[in-house]
Automatic annotation (TrEMBL):
It holds the Pfam family TENA_THI-4. Residues 25-229 form the Thiaminase-2/PQQC domain. This is TenA family protein. It comes from Belnapia arida. PANTHER family: BIFUNCTIONAL TH2 PROTEIN (PTHR43198), SI:CH1073-67J19.1-RELATED (PTHR43198:SF2).
Length: 231
């Protein structure tokens, strides 16, 4: 699978690639969902993207909570520092996200006043539940489909022969996740899964970790789908 740029996250033989391979169909359904293809070719209905943007803001709040849990579950002081920094980055991102929403005609009051959808609740609470029930590896595996998956989504879009390259209304979104900074973060997250797999008995726990990873991928796909349903 090393012949495509979006399959080389993580190390060869490492836990991340094993997890990805074990749920290949669910992973593909998430990372090349019709919602994603609509972003790529510019045909995604505006109503779908607006729905996604609002729920993504609400998701980010719980993503920060999950990172706070990761501080508590962290295996070292260095990991605690890293996760603490990521909380601040996500909280800063929520403000940037509100600004981005405004560009799409969504004011702050509307975004913050919208209830969480069932898809947002089910996904975010699942991730936090896995973290509460398990250790740092359980939590990081539940988070990885989001962090690493968006990096893969961007690379898939860039390689899409049907991608709309001129005047794509979603180009700024594509650029954000294709940017070197995000790609580096996604690759670091995959390598962290590999490292935790080595230090926390990933091979012995693979059936449980694989089930967590696959469910998170399915929940990601449902998160995209809610946008299409709204349209």
């Amino acid at each position: 699978m090393a012949d495509t740029p979006w399959t080389d996250f993580g190390a060869e033989g490492g836990l991340f690639r094993r997890l990805r391979k074990a749920c290949a169909s669910d992973w593909a359904a998430y990372t090349w969902h019709p919602f994603v293809r609509g972003i790529s070719d510019g045909t995604l209905p505006l109503a779908a993207f607006r729905r996604y943007l609002i729920q993504d803001y609400l998701f980010l709040i719980h993503f920060a909570r999950a990172k706070a849990l990761a501080v508590f579950k962290a295996e070292s002081i260095e990991a605690m520092r890293d996760k603490t920094a990521s909380i601040a980055a996500i909280l800063a991102e929520t403000q940037l996200h509100l600004g981005y929403c405004a560009e799409w005609g969504l004011d702050e009051a509307e975004v913050r006043g919208t209830p969480e959808s069932a898809e947002t609740v089910s996904y975010t609470r699942y991730v936090i539940d896995r973290g509460l029930a398990g250790d740092i590896l359980d939590l990081e595996v539940a988070l990885a489909p989001c962090t690493v998956g968006y990096g893969e989504v961007a690379l898939r879009i860039l390689a899409d022969p049907h991608r709309r390259r001129e005047r794509n209304p979603y180009q700024s979104w594509i650029d954000a996740y294709a940017a070197p900074g995000y790609q580096a973060m996604a690759r670091a997250a995959a390598l962290r899964i590999d490292a935790l797999g080595e230090s926390h008995g990933g091979s012995a726990r693979f059936p449980i970790l694989s089930a967590t990873f696959a469910e998170a991928a399915r929940l990601e796909a449902r998160f995209w789908q809610q946008g299409l349903d709204a349209a």
